[in-house]
Amino acid sequence: MQLSFYKYQGTGNDFILIDNRLNEISLTTEQIHFLCHRRFGIGADGLMLLELEPGFDFKMVYYNSDGNSSSMCGNGGRCITAFAKHLGIIENKAKFIATDGPHEATIDEQEIVSLKMQDVKQVEAGDDFYYLNTGSPHYVKFINDVEKFDVKNMGYLIRNSERFKEEGTNVNFIERLEDNLFVRTYERGVEDETYSCGTGVTAAALVAAIKGVSNGKNNCFIKTLGGNLEVKFERVLEQNFYNIWLIGPAVMVFKGSISLA
User: Fold this and answer.
1) Where are the alpha helices (DSSP H) in the chain?
2) Is the dihedral of CA 21, 23, 28, 34 positive or negative?
3) What is the reported pTM?
4) Which position among 36, 73, 79, 220 bears the catalytic label?
5) Res 248: pLDDT
6) What is the pLDDT of the chain when averaged over all its residues?
7) Cβ partners under 8 Å of residue 191, min gap 6
8) If we measure between CA atoms, which residue out of 182, 167, 169, 179 comes closest to residue 134?
9) Is 79 a catalytic residue?
10) Residue 214 predicted with pLDDT over 90
11) Residue 232: predicted pLDDT
12) Over pLDDT 70: what percentage of the chain?
């Protein structure tokens, strides 16, 4: 099979995108893992199929680089919105369905995509961490000197701890800098640090607001290894967040085709 694809990235979080509106493409776990492999395939943190869904502009079907279907991916949602505009499905606004429910998105002329995330109504406060779901589960911990921190090994230990080893969790290490947060994330399903994680920076921004260390009352600027993002939100009471928007660039890298056995 000759498979046509597009490669997109959002602050270094990269994805393979495939137009499956005709519903002719069905990939196995092994094939997806191969396509995402950075030595033998195209290379990506995840793969998405853009499909049709009644009542929506499109449906986002997301797989991690290990080939398994996954929960919501924020940067993936921004990239598939840019892909939908490239295909002529939308102009500057989108309404789509993902595994965690419906989403809205807008895209401007500079390819900045704003994605509306699901409301967050519960945040667990541990002894030295926070745990919440922003479409995907996230463990958030403040540390010092995050730039030099061993994210891969420490993230692996938390992700595979007794509590999280079965379902897995994403693990975020964050530090408050002068005018933003610096967030580094270990992602389940990738089982490594990624350059950026959209649901992760969203979780970090909400936790920073709870701790009172956010750089804005209703918004937060975030630095990742792959670039800068912004999270805007409204807050009611201590742990109730709504009207949450993840904002940042989404860029097409290249398009191509690949043979699959």
Assistant:
1) 29-36, 74-86, 151-159, 198-211
2) negative
3) 0.96
4) 73
5) 98
6) 96
7) 66, 156, 159
8) 169
9) no
10) no
11) 97
12) 99
